[in-house]
Amino acid sequence: MAELSDIQNExxxxxxxxxxxxxxxxxxxIELFGKARPIL
Length: 40
Description:
mainly alpha
């Protein structure tokens, strides 16, 4: 299971924490953005 700390980009982490509520939505976005380069 992916964790929010897997996302290297601080802005993306903050956006996910602030705007997403449903666990499946959070998990999907963490998996997606966890693979992105931090410079995104």
